[in-house]
Each structure stands twice: as structure tokens, then as C-alpha cells.
Amino acid sequence: MLLSKPVRQQICLQYELESKMTLLHIESSEAIKNQIFRLEIRDDHDSLIRRHEDIKDSTFEIVFKPQPNTIVNICLLNIVKDASWVKKGYIRQVNLEVSPVYDYSNPRYDKKEIKGLREMMNRNGRELIENVEIVLSKLEEEMKFLVKREHNLRDLNENTLNVLNWQIVALFIAGMLTQSYALWCLRKIAKF
């Protein structure tokens, strides 16, 4: 479907829908800077079901719920703003897909499919648990290493502090002895 140049161009497509929930999937080429691309979904009584003012993305999905067994008009409106002086056409290619959405209110279960899903979930659960256990064991080893290293560094720090304290005391005593000797020498020289 091509939407092209005229300042306003509208294309409407009719669908007869049986499903209560319907998915409308639109894929389009890139948006043009001065172009508005509008979507309207109306029923056969011309009542508005859904509307989207400006579709800018290249893929767009919308879910709507018409009345059962209703004819629905899906209208795409292409508006080119400020193009009065431009003679060249603006083209936007659009692919439209209308499909029913699965009705989850009345599920139909396949026993083989459920069994396969349970097996897959159990397998994935076991793999996840094994991966978590591996990571936890690695973390536990790292924590043991860090605790041991912290104890060694604390012991080294305490030993260094003790040695440093004794060195300061020894240096103080050596300084006092040096001062005492210097004073004794000066007294002896002064007596002569």
C-alpha cells in the first residue's frame, strides 16, 4: 500500500473480525519530517474503536477489541504539512497485518507441551542452582582469602607499631644521653 503526495490522503480497508481481541501490526518506511501519519479504527456503525494521532516509528502495534463478527474499517490518513510550494510527491510504504490475539480466558492445554515445559523449567532451574553454587563457592574462597590477608596485615601493623614505639623510646633515650654528655663536656671545659 502506498500513501503519496496529496496534502491529505486517506485509505480505508475493511475487515470482518470474529475474534474479540485483535492485533494490528503496521510496518512502514521512515517517517518524513513534515508528515503526520494517523490511524483510525472504526466499526461498521462508524463508531471510533481506537485512534493513534501520529505514528513515527517504523513498526507499530495496537490491540483493539471490536464487537464479535463486526466489520471494522482501518483507516490510514497521510497528512503532509507545509507542502503547498513543493510539487514532488511524498511516499510512505506501509505493510498492514491484522491477526487475532490468543484468548487467555479459555486456555487449551496440551499435556505433552506442558510436560516438555516442566522438564525444561526443571533443567533450567537445576542449571541455575548449579551456577549459583559455583559463584557462591568462588565468593566464599575469596572471602576466606581476604579475611586471612586482613588478619596478616593487622598483625603486621601491630608489630610495626610496637617496633616503632620501642625505636622512638630508644631514640629519645639516646637523645637525652647525648644532651647529658654534651652538658657534662661543657661543664668540664668551663672548669678549666
Would you mind describing this structure in some detail?
This protein has one helix at 111-191; strands at 2-3, 8-17, 22-28, 35-43, 48-52, 59-64, 70-80, 92-100. By secondary structure, it is an alpha+beta fold. It has a domain at 2-100: Jelly Rolls. The strands form 2 sheets. The protein has a 4-stranded antiparallel β-sheet, with no helix packed on it. A 4-stranded antiparallel β-sheet has the order 2-7-4-5, with no helix packed on it. It is elongated, with a radius of gyration of 42 Å.
Give the secondary structure arrangement, pairings included:
Blueprint lengths: L1 E2 L4 E10 L4 E7 L6 E9 L4 E5 L6 E6 L5 E11 L11 E9 L10 H81 L1
Antiparallel strand pairs: 1-8, 2-7, 3-6, 3-8, 4-5, 4-7
Order of helices and strands: EEEEEEEEH
Strand tally is 8
Helix content: 40-55%
Tally of helical runs: 1
Identify the overall geometry. elongated
State Rg.
42 Å
The averaged pLDDT comes out at 82
CATH fold label of the domain at 2-100: Jelly Rolls
**Architecture of the domain at 2-100, CATH level 2?**
Sandwich
**Major beta sheet summary:** 4 strands, antiparallel
Looking at the chains present, what oligomeric state does this protein adopt?
single chain
Beta fraction of the residues?
Answer: 25-35%
Question: Poorly predicted ranges (pLDDT <50, ≥5 residues)?
Answer: 1-6
Secondary-structure-based class equals alpha+beta
CATH class of the domain at 2-100: Mainly Beta
User: Distance between the terminal alpha carbons, to the nearest Å?
Assistant: 125 Å
